[in-house]
Recover the amino acids of this structure.
């Protein structure tokens, strides 16, 4: 008969941690361990206190929390029988520093544990598994070094992705500005030539003044003209081309698209004809005004292209925050928008981006460059999950004293058995060479440890969402 407070050998064997031990080893555990019941709501271990006991959950539900600033942030909630926590590193060599609990554990309902002292747990590990002990010590040190090295690599990869994305996005407006500048040079030369032809035609000064005034009127009309649909523009080009052909305008069918794009119609051409009384000057006048229209359109193209370049550079600066303090009060929408701009080439045209922003949200204290790394990791994963087609929804809202950012995709979802592991370091569902398994781990540490917030995954087929909560209060200094 088993003594009260103890577990029988057969019961210990049902725990996955002990299932491969010998009868002799199980008997030793049964003799040295004790069971303990903790009532719902009671604290089992306290973060920072000496790590004196090793716990194995027998029944109930527990929550592990880490202290971040003034808040207790939940990191794990589980009811899985056999999970262990507490003095989990008691087997490591004593380096003269007392080992302490790395988190607090609270029973959420009445919970039972099998408990070993840290001293007994460390002794059994050193005696029973000497080779495993050396491996675990090496693994602990190796993981620290590996995480540091891959974390640095991750930052370099993010910088490379930023550079590639920026170059990709800058290429189109830069090329457009270059093409428009070359065309503009030709049109300005043509205008000078046509102006010389008009002057050589001995146009009366008052008539030339009228033409210049007419040119300004045409430019103003073009600026205010409504945008035509493709079908309307095609019909307008046909009307204008026919008119120019009837009035012996050379190259009329080449000029018609310019006038149509400028929003001009037949009434405007009749007005130009009425202003040009001298015979033979209508052709030069039409071409002169056409050059003026095209010049305005090219300058608008250059303005739009250079404005796009300026906007991209601004987004890159906001994304990297190279010119700002590391920690500041920020509007989360700025970082989200700049990240979407930087990842536009990855998102592609097959993914629809939907923004549901609450613009009344207050600013939050944060390290913006680090948060942008979080947005990058989540959005990149979402785009890969959708394989180039679907909807990416970025939503912001307020919940109590937190600003919440939800990033969702319409991909296949994350299977239930993998959801609890997505934030584990080195865990990845991607093919070899496509992921390090650290993106979401880094994101978790940035949000939880660095900002005192929380990040959770809610997933089902067609609706996967990473929900990031950021406190509105100042976090503790790091």
């Amino acid at each position: 008969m088993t003594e009260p407070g103890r577990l029988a050998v057969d019961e210990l064997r049902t725990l996955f941690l002990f299932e491969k031990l010998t009868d002799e080893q199980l008997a030793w555990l049964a003799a040295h361990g004790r069971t303990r019941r903790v009532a719902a709501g009671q604290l089992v271990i306290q973060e920072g206190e000496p790590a004196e006991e090793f716990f194995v959950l027998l029944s109930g539900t527990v929550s592990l929390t880490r202290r971040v600033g003034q808040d207790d942030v939940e990191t794990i909630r589980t009811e899985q029988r056999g999970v262990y926590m507490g003095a989990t590193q008691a087997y490591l060599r004593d380096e003269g520093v007392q080992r302490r609990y790395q988190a607090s554990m609270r029973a959420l309902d009445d919970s039972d544990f099998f408990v070993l002292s840290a001293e007994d747990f460390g002794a059994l590990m050193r005696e029973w598994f000497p080779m495993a002990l050396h491996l675990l010590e090496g693994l602990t040190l190796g993981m620290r070094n590996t995480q540091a090295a891959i974390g640095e690599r991750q930052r370099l990869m993010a910088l490379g992705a930023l550079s590639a994305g920026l170059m990709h996005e800058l290429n189109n407006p830069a090329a457009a500005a270059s093409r428009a500048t070359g065309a503009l040079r030709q049109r300005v030369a043509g205008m000078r030539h046509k102006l010389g032809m008009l002057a050589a035609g001995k146009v009366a000064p008052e008539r030339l003044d009228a033409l210049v005034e007419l040119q300004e009127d045409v430019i103003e009309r073009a600026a205010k003209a409504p945008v035509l649909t493709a079908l309307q523009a095609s019909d307008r080009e046909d009307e204008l081309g026919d008119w120019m052909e009837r009035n012996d305008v050379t190259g009329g069918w080449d000029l018609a698209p310019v006038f149509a794009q400028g929003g001009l119609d037949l009434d405007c051409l009749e007005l130009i004809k009425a202003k040009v009384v001298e015979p033979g000057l209508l052709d030069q006048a039409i071409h002169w005004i056409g050059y003026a229209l095209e010049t305005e359109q090219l300058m608008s193209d250059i303005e739009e292209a250079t404005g796009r370049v300026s906007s991209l550079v601004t987004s890159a600066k906001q994304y990297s925050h190279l010119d700002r303090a590391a920690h500041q009060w920020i509007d989360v929408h700025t970082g989200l928008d700049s990240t979407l701009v930087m990842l536009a080439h990855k998102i592609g045209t097959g993914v629809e981006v939907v923004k549901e922003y609450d613009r009344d949200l207050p600013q939050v204290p944060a390290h913006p460059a680090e948060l942008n790394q979080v947005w990058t990791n989540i959005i990149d994963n979402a785009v890969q999950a959708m394989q180039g087609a679907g909807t990416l929804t970025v939503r912001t809202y307020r919940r109590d004293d937190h600003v919440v950012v939800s990033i969702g995709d319409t991909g296949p979802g994350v299977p239930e058995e993998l959801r609890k592991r997505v934030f584990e370091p080195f865990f990845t569902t991607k093919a070899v060479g496509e992921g390090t398994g650290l993106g979401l781990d880094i994101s978790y540490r940035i949000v939880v440890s660095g900002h005192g917030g929380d990040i959770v995954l809610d997933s089902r087929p067609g609706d996967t969402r990473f929900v990031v909560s950021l406190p509105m209060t100042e976090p503790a200094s790091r």
Remarks:
- The longest strand covers residues 390-399.
- Residues 431-437 have pLDDT under 50 and may be disordered.
- Residues 215 and 289 are 6 Å apart (CA to CA).
- Residues 130-200 form the longest helix (71 residues).
